[in-house]
């Protein structure tokens, strides 16, 4: 019998609604469902991924049964085992390792927002390990931390057509990274006569091309630019004096601090025309309402990351663009159970917290830092998710794996990530992982990381599992919907895996919900919405109120901001306690090339260039979707892009093979030409060959050849959070007279597991 079932795509964080036609537990057709969130079929019309859903559900490359390694680590030989055998053995081995070295011997790794990560985090909290590595330091935390330290909570853009006058898009390219309503809004902004779009990006992206003003900033100098805008806004008398007087702390200090940041100085440092800096300041400062969205271009610049976010917060504050219509809105706490309660991080005992490796290194991104900030946010009844904000620094976890110092990290759970492609310094990650006693990978495919695991556990994906996607619990929004079918073959949801491991390790009390849908229903309960009601619309959302800082607090006077002073802290009272700056100042650039390497490359006819990596490109996502033949036909090569002028100067042409190197390692790419700053190379990330047989080391799916993370490093970090750099780094580039090897390789697919 054919049934119509509501469900959702999850090939990006947007989780669009679909109707699945289901026959005998199998999906036979899938079509967009305009009656549920995001209610906009145009998004799907512009999306190249969603039609893959049916193929992915039953791809011959999927892992369908638990696999246990039979040969040496990375041998590429597996046996199929039952779930009970796999989970019994994993639980027993984890317990043994914890008895021997302490629970912190277990580390975990997560990646982008592919799954709900609280089940893993809950498992880790109850197991007793703080060592969850994530991508937090370089993807989300910097902004969340600095917004919270400045405003007492996080902030997001509130673009109102016809009201907001200026929109700044800073270090983000939604044209490629966010195929959603947001990109459509930006297109509308760009067309509106009464709105101005300003884009800050070293590349002339599609977003930059739509802008009224494009600032092609030199990578890593955004803090200086933001301070320059603050300076100019003050000079031109565009400050919202009343707001600053009533609600900002440290304005006089800020005035002094930004004095040197004249348009000429900023132009020199940032490689911009000073007139453009002035114009941008006027556009932001004079607007009735100005909104600002930042992204990975800022988050992944190493040492400058915290000061850049702080400077941007100051820019919003002195212009009064805080919590007012059409500007930058403080989010609300969630009505549903916040992530922090579901992850159960408070279960870690003081002794277990003391094993947190970050404590001595990154005073903000650790439990003590979290507690300091929590004291502030709790004044207004809010808490950030703890696991993300305290996530362990990969540099320290990798050292513990490699050397056993300060204690032995011997086991790793990899959940929805492919660290051999996406974590910094692949050679080091590989060396460290190869030393482990136990690696368990939860994934759909035999990724390069899965190929060196002890166990690969088959995971149910979109359509086979329910979705309640929340923003780490820092906003009052959650979206998604129900599963259309039971998982195919023997796949399980991530939740089931962590619950069943937890049950084997004495965590029964913490896992009352038999299924993920039950857990989501419980998560929604405090919001007064049932799971079924939620599934009907596919969204829980409440628009935040404006000017919440004026609402009466416990004593009847305006509640203000949840900071040390109750005001917006232009000058931070909290950061100096952690060894940070009261007022922001640009950090040093991270250099990955030694003088010897540069000299050597120059001798071989190469050059030393600025490098940015990982700029998002549809239809791929990090290391995913490269197996799609249609995608590969259209976007066949891992590219290293330079401007036409740079290519000419170097005597290179589009299509040439180039080798890029740093002190960490090298990788090869095809040269592309794109509109961007000169003397800069923009390098794709995530490239491997999922179409090759997953035959283990040394090939590991062809991941060594064009993997830009063979060049990056997490060993140099921003001092408060631990952010390393994927942008604003350097490399040497030389021409190579042979094509990339995959051009010669066959594309066999015969791995049915
Ligand atoms: N297609 C696709 N979409 C994705 C993803 C994907 O892998 N593929 N990944 C998802 C994830 S995990 C994330 S975090 C988001 C990220 O989403 P975004 O933040 O929008 O990331 P990008 O699209 O790479 O845009 C970052 C921009 O910053 C610019 N940039 C680089 N260095 C600097 C700098 O120093 N200063 C400034 N001002 N700009 C700089 C780059 O040129 C680039 O255009 O995308 C999500 N969406
Ligand atoms: N050089 C460089 N490196 C970067 C970046 C960069 O810009 N430049 N960006 C960084 C950023 S912002 C991010 S977020 C990371 C992204 O890094 P990752 O998240 O590691 O990248 P993906 O390739 O998306 O890996 C996701 C893996 O999870 C699997 N998967 C998908 N959904 C699920 C699920 O629901 N459950 C399970 N168990 N598995 C699932 C997929 O099959 C895939 O193998 O990369 C970071 N690394
Ligand atoms: S926009 Fe994202 S969630 Fe929506 S259909 Fe496309 S890939 Fe799927
Ligand atoms: Mo990310």
Number of domains: 3
- Strand content bin: 15-25%
Question: What is the name of the CATH architecture of the largest domain?
Answer: 3-Layer(aba) Sandwich
What name is given to the CATH topology of the largest domain?
A: Rossmann fold
Given as residue ranges, the uncertain stretches (5+ residues, pLDDT < 50) are 746-753
Give the helix tally.
Answer: 29
Query: How would a crystallographer describe the biggest sheet?
Result: 7 strands, mixed
Mean pLDDT: 95
SS elements, strand count = 27
Strand order of the largest sheet: 5-4-17-16-15-6-7
Overall 3D form: globular
Name of the CATH class of the largest domain: Alpha Beta
Small-molecule binders: ligand MGD, iron/sulfur cluster, molybdenum atom
- What is the end-to-end distance? 29 Å
Helix content: 25-40%
Derived from helix and strand composition plus strand pairing, the structural class reads alpha/beta
Fold and architecture overview:
With 753 residues, the protein is an alpha/beta fold. It has 3 domains: 67-135 and 336-534, 3-Layer(aba) Sandwich (Rossmann fold), CATH 3.40.50.740; 155-330, 3-Layer(aba) Sandwich (Dimethylsulfoxide Reductase, domain 2), CATH 3.40.228; 595-743, Barwin-like endoglucanases. Helices cover 31% and strands 17% of the residues. The chain is built from 29 helices and 27 strands. It has a 7-stranded mixed beta sheet with strand order 5-4-17-16-15-6-7. It has a 6-stranded mixed barrel with strand order 22-26-23-25-24-27. A 4-stranded parallel beta sheet has the order 11-10-9-13, with helices on both faces. A hairpin with an 8-residue loop joins β1 and β2 (17-23). One ligand MGD is lined by residues 111-112, 114-115, 135, 138-139, 296, 300, 415-418, 422, 442-445, 447, 459, 461, 494, 613-614, 621-624, 685-686, 708-709, 712, 726.
